[in-house]
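pinned: reference chain
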Amino acid sequence: MINTFIQEFTEAAHSHEICNLQFYTEEVRKVSVNVYQGAPESNFQSEVAGCYVQGEYQGKTGYVYIEDFSKELFEGEIADLKEVAMLSDAEGSVNALTEVKCEKQEQLTAVDILAERLIQAEKEALAAHPGVKKFNHFQCGEIIRRISIRNDQGGCMEDENKYAFFGVNAEAEKDGVVQIAGGEILALSAEELDMSAAATEAASEAVGMLAAQQIKTGTYPVILKNSVICEMLGMFVKNFAADTVHKDLSKLAGKKGERIASSIVNLVEDPKLPGGANQRAFDDEGTPTSRKEIVKDGVLQMFLYNQEEAKKDGVASTGNGFKESCRSKPGVFVTNLKLEGETKPLEELMRDMGDGLYITNCDGMFAGADPVSGKFSLISKGYQIENGEIDGSVNQITVAGNFYDMLQVIEGIGEDYLMNNGDGGMIIAPSIYVKELVVSGL
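pinned: its C-alpha cells
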C-alpha cells in the first residue's frame, strides 16, 4: 500500500512542478489486553499508517500530512502542499539518504496468549498477598513501529522496532485505609515481561503502605526507587538537547566540560542498547544514529542535536532529530537513555545509607518539578530505613530539592534497572542513593 501510494503521488506531484519530494511514513501496529478479577475485560488491536510529505515548489518547501492514501485525494493534498510552500520562508533543499534496508518482520503476540499470561500473573500475585483487595489496572500489550524515509531520487531508509508493556495498580484495604501501588515495566516482547514479579511487587507495596505514618520534617539521606529516577530523568532530559539550550531554557548551557554530577555518574544515549526498546539505525531526518556519552564520570561531554540546531552551532547532527508524531517536524529527542555507573544491590545501598528513607513513589511530577530551574517538591511515600534495613512505611510526606544539586550528591547506584517510556524516548535507570534531600512531614 505505502509503496504504491508513494509511486503514484510522486508522479502526480511532479506533474504539478513539485520536486525534491521526501516521504516520511510511520506504520504502527498495537495489541493490548486488560484483565480484571481473573477474566479478560477488554482487548484492543489496531493498525494505523501516516505519511508526512515534503516537497519543493517554486524554490520553497511545502508539506502535507496524509492518512488516507486514496488517489482521489491527491489533487487536494498537492494543492495544500503548494499553498504551504508559497507561504513558507524555507528554501527548498535535497536531503540525501543513505540506503538502509530493514529485514525485520516483527509479529504481535496473540490476544489469547496475552490474556492467559495476565490471568496467571494476577492469580500468583493475589496468592502471595491476600491483603490485596483487587487490581484496578492489569494490562499488557505490544507495539510495533515501522519507519521509512524515501525521496523521489530513489533513496530509501527503513527501520522497525517492537516493545511490550505491562501496567499494574494494586489496591489494598484495612480498617478503612486504602493504599494503591503499581507502575509500568517494558521489554522487547511480552514473553520477556516478568508480569508476575511486577504484580507481586505492586501488591507488596500496597499492603506495606497500610500501616504507613508520617515522619518529622528534616534533611534525610534518601534512596529513590528506579521508577522515580526514570520519571525524573524523563522530566529533565530535554536540558541536554541543543534546542532547549538555544532557547536559554537549560541550566546546563555553557557547562560543557564541567562537572555536573557525582563522579560515579555516567549518562549514555545508545540507539543500539541491548534490551533497549527504542533501537534505531537512523533518526527521523535520515541521520545515522550512534552511541553517545553525554555525561562521563560526572562531566558533561556534549549536547544532542538535530539538523536545524546543528546548523546554529556549526556542527553535525548527532542523529537525535526525532518527531513527537508523524505529522510534526523533528525536534531533539533520545533513543535509549541509560544512567550507568558501578552498581550495587539495593540491599547494599540501604546498608551503605544506614538510616534514611527509601522513596518508592512520587506523585505529581509534572506539576511539582520545574525542568528549567531544577526545583522539585513531590508528594511521596516509601519506607523508613534504620541500620540498613526497612523499619516501617511512611506516607503523607513531601520530598524536595533541586535536580541539578541532587546529581552532585549521588552516593550510590543500584543494579535494579527499569525501563520507562520518557519524553520522546526510553529512559533506563536503577534506584540511586542520594546524600540528602529535604523531607516535610510532621
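why pinned: Residues 111-128 form the longest helix (18 residues). The first strand starts at residue 18 and ends at 36.
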